[in-house]
Q: What sequence folds into this?
């Protein structure tokens, strides 16, 4: 990698990763208080859980429309739309009409808008980076994107907690609002991607149905691996507190273990991206899924805070090295024309996995107990590793794993 290539990545770092960090911070600040805010407005535990789920529902129902929007109006304008929708959602979250149904409806609508905005923003940012960065640096760029989002979400709760000391629960939303507004200012100054009239005309002809017809094999094969990987990655957020309670640890110990795993997670994103760029996607995707599966199985052998911490750290490492892998794989196999529409369908696969993973853990636990539930969830990780090994496109590599002239990082070998 030459110095000019390094400069090119650095030259877009602030515009590309600054808004992503702020967006992650905004989400991280308000996520811990959604349930508490719902209860404060008179919601039962079940209703509070439903309102919390609206964040994911907003993302799921908006993924494909997000791709269509970015294809039609461009990535930069889509990110500005997402910022505006997020600000509107946060304002609705701050409107407290007391305890009652109307207050909960307004608050729930705000959460739904935030989920939709997250979908639009994440997809447009991924498409923007994919277009802006040379293919042989793509994994580093997208891994860094995933990493800074996690850093923002890691820092957000701490800033939100500080603001809550001054303004109560509303303080967390004030932090989110300020971060989102700052992200919008940076995005506003980001230059549009240059596209010819021919490219714009071709993009206008792209439809979701057309993308599905052309790439259905990719969605059924490599997409299946993404569903499985997303399932175990989402389940890891549930399994640590469940197992901590199972072995009798206090909530404080659980939070500390979760935090340590998070630190390991956010510390490994850039090296993983470099490995993917130099040696190929398999070198990260397969170990990520395998280590996650192994950490689940090993967790069932832990009976103390120390051993659970070690298992959680392994889990954090497995997840951390996979930072950006889902985005990188989708960028590799996406078409140049209609890329955002393709990525919208891909995000539906990822979100499906995120919804299915905890359900597998819950269902098996209900039938056979928590130990069996955790082990079966671990097997999902091993299944993801196998599918990804088979279906990630192979590439012909030059020296140090770089593609030869004219090759994409994911171009299949004959």
A:
């Amino acid at each position: 990698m030459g110095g000019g290539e390094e400069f090119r990545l650095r030259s877009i770092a602030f515009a590309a990763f600054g808004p992503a960090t702020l967006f992650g911070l905004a989400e991280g600040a308000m996520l811990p208080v959604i349930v508490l805010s719902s209860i404060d407005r008179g919601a039962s535990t079940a209703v509070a859980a439903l309102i919390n789920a609206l964040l994911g529902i907003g993302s799921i129902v908006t993924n494909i429309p997000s791709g269509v929007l970015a294809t039609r109006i461009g990535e930069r304008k889509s990110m500005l739309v997402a910022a505006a929708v997020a600000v509107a959602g946060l304002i609705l979250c701050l409107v407290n009409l007391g305890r009652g149904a109307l207050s909960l409806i307004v608050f729930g609508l705000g959460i739904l808008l935030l989920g939709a905005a997250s979908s639009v923003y994440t997809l447009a940012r991924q498409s923007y980076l994919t277009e802006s960065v040379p293919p042989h640096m793509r994994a580093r760029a997208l891994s860094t994107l995933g990493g800074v989002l996690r850093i923002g979400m890691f820092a957000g709760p701490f800033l939100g907690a500080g603001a809550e000391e001054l303004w109560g629960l509303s303080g967390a939303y004030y932090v989110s609002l300020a971060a989102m507004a700052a992200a919008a200012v940076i995005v506003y100054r980001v230059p549009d991607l240059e596209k010819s009239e021919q490219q714009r005309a071709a993009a206008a002809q792209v439809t979701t149905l057309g993308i599905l017809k052309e790439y259905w094999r990719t969605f059924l094969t490599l997409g299946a691996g993404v569903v499985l990987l997303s399932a175990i990655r989402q389940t890891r957020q549930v399994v640590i507190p469940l197992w901590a309670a199972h072995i009798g640890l206090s909530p404080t110990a659980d939070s500390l273990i979760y935090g340590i795993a998070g630190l390991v997670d956010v510390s490994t994103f850039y090296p993983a991206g470099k490995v993917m760029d130099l040696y190929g996607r398999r070198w990260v995707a397969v170990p990520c899924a395998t280590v996650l599966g192994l950490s689940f199985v090993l967790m069932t052998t832990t009976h103390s805070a120390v051993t659970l911490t070690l298992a959680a750290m392994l889990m954090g490492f497995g997840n951390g090295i996979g930072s950006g892998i889902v985005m990188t794989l989708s960028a590799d196999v996406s078409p140049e024309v209609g890329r955002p529409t393709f990525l919208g369908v891909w995000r539906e696969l990822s979100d499906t996995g995120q919804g299915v993973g905890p359900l597998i853990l819950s269902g098996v636990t209900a039938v056979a107990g928590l130990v069996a539930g955790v082990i079966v969830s671990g097997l999902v990780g091993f299944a993801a590793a196998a599918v990804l090994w088979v279906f990630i496109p192979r590439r012909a590599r030059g020296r140090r794993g770089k593609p030869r002239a004219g090759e994409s990082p994911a171009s299949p070998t004959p």
In short: The CA atoms of residues 222 and 390 lie 8 Å apart. The chain has 18 helices and no strands.
